[in-house]
Amino acid sequence: MKKLLHAGAAGALTAGLVLVGSGSASAHVTVVPDTTTAGAYALLTFGVPHGCGESATTEVSLQIPEQIITVTPTVNPGWEIEKVMATLDEPVDDGHGGQYTERVAEVVYTTDTPLPNGYRDAFVLSVKLPDSAGDTLVFPAVQTCEEGESAWVQLPAEGQDLGDLEMPAPMFELTAAPADEEGEAQADAAVDGSTSAVSWVALALGGAGLLLGGAAFLRSRRATS
Predict the structure, then answer these.
(1) Which residues contact 147 (CB under 8 A, 6 or more apart)?
(2) Is the pLDDT score of 198 beyond 90?
(3) What pLDDT does 134 receive?
(4) Range of lowest pLDDT (7-16, 74-83, 165-174)
(5) pTM exceeds 0.85
(6) When comparing pLDDT for 14 and 54, which is higher?
């Protein structure tokens, strides 16, 4: 069974959903990863294609799943960026001899030059994906406008199609590493093993050659003395 990995506040946001003038929107706030491979480093592009109804966008808040610890936002001209931190229940190894004691729980983009309705912008985050192929990562997003806001936080019920939701949260499913990559890794290991074996055989033959050459040299010296 697939598991949804999303920010803890998503349920509360869904229960208190605020929709202002965007119920008939033809496009959603979406996320497009450059890779969905579990455990990989990925660039996530969040697209904001319209305002709240006819109102221009002034802020976009992106909630980060708890399984993602660090986030590096890409700078967008005209937008200020804030990383909202949350304390971890337990420290997490950072892979460099240290530990993370907090994580990026939310990334907020704000602007003094509102994005007009009908114009698109994109926000890119660099993250390391969790090692959990088959799970779905959910990024609840709240779009604030000059008038009102749109909360893109709805999650599909069991068996429900995502396209049936009016205000779906941006999400995607983690996948396993492609079979060809695994095959290449196994092939590389086999080649390394074969190379090592050949090297040892070559050393052994070289040693045997030295011994035979030495014996022949001794015999020739005895014959001439």
Answers:
(1) 20, 21, 52, 53, 55
(2) no
(3) 94
(4) 7-16
(5) no
(6) 54
Residue 109 tokens, joined: 């983009």
Q: What values do phi and psi take at 219, rounded to 5?
A: -65, -40
Which DSSP letter does residue 167 get?
A: S
- Pick from 66, 69, 71: nearest CA to 82: 71
Quote the percentage of the chain above a pLDDT of 90.
61
pLDDT at 89 over 90: yes
Which amino acid, 133? A
Q: Say how far apart CA 190 and CA 80 lie, in whole Å.
A: 50
Token pair belonging to 209: 């050659």
3-state class of 6 per DSSP? strand
- Cβ-proximal residues to 43 (8 Å cutoff; 6+ apart), any chain: 33, 34, 124, 125, 126
Amino acid at 88: L
| Residue type present at position 202 | A
Residues 6+ apart with CB under 8 A from 50: 22, 25, 27, 117, 118, 120
Fold adopted by 4-177: Immunoglobulin-like (2.60.40)
